Amino acid sequence: MFAKNQLNVLILVLILITHFACTTKEESHYETPADTIPSVVVSAGTEINHQICGTGEPTLLFIHGWCIDQSYWSYQSDGFCGQYQVVTIDLPGYGQSGRNRDNWSIEQFGEDVDHLINQLQLKNVVLIGHSMGGDIILETALKNDKVIALVGVDNFKDVEMEFNQQIQEEINGFLQILEENYSEVASAYAEGALFHPKTDPMVMQRVVDNIQGADSTIAVASLKQLFEYTQQEAQKLSKLKQKLFLINSSYTPTDTAALKRTGVDYQLLQIHETGHYPMIEKPGEFNQLLKQVLAEIDFSA
């Protein structure tokens, strides 16, 4: 069990990283023949496992969050590949992608996605990123002019949060106990922060099982790098030229005043009575909101 001070640290970090939100491979609702998918290799010779559904352009490129794999987008692939080219990926270190490197920073993940867009010769790309994937698509959009819009999913909720010395020390303490007792601490994190009271227990169990089954070394390293990148979010958003759409759970608030102060062109669409995984908790409603977003994007520009 946790000591009282460890629980206090855990509670603080849970508040901080509901913005973020590890995995074994889940069975997907779709499948593309492997021999039709071009390989993508990024830094250190790391191969990115990905699926392509539909053809042509525009392309919807889905990026999962901290420790989730591409199977979490299966409802969206099923729903959109008839009209769009849909690409889903396992980020390096997750799912069935390669793990043969040591750099798990947001900047490196953004470079990975940038390389994937270029290697697959994608055009008119809408990046959709859940949780940590929001920071990754932001970093990618700042690098690649093929990106025409971004859709964040339950992220960018508090872009002006300041990490003072006390908070930083508490984060460091959390990361230490996470590294020392990954399974118990990570499970407590998931059960305490990621779900709505009405979240389906099967969804909850899936997420908890995925987190507990993660590569703990990569999970902790990714989270540490994520904390560091979060402190740059407002500055990064101020440089973004593309419009940012947010499909966020209303269960935790989005600081719209802070978003406005960055100068980013954004639009918030809220989905109710879900936790941190609206794309699998309420896939029908989520897909309707995503359709609404796509209807507002000028693909001919």
Across the major sheet, the strand order is 1-3-2-4-5-6-7
Q: Can you identify the CATH superfamily?
A: Alpha/Beta hydrolase fold, catalytic domain
| Beta content | 5-15%
> CATH topology, anyone?
Rossmann fold
Structural class, from helix and strand content? alpha/beta
Q: Helical amount among residues, as a percent range?
A: 40-55%
Rg (CA only) = 18 Å
Q: Which CATH-level-2 architecture?
A: 3-Layer(aba) Sandwich
| Count of individual domains | 1
CATH classification class = Alpha Beta
| N-end to C-end Cα span | 56 Å
Global morphology = globular
Primary descriptors:
single chain, 301 residues, alpha/beta, Rossmann fold, 7 strands, 13% strand, disordered N terminus
Task: Write a compact overview of the structure shown.
The chain has twelve helices and seven strands. The chain is α/β, with parallel strands linked by helices.
Describe the protein's architecture and organization.
Helix 1 crosses helix 5, helix 1 crosses helix 6 and helix 5 packs antiparallel against helix 8. The protein has a seven-stranded mixed sheet, with helices on both faces. It has one domain: 3-Layer(aba) Sandwich (Rossmann fold), CATH 3.40.50. The N terminus is likely disordered. 43% of the residues lie in helices and 13% in strands. The radius of gyration is 18 Å and the shape is globular. It is built from twelve helices and seven strands. By secondary structure, the chain is of the alpha/beta class. Helix 4 links the parallel strand 4 and strand 5.
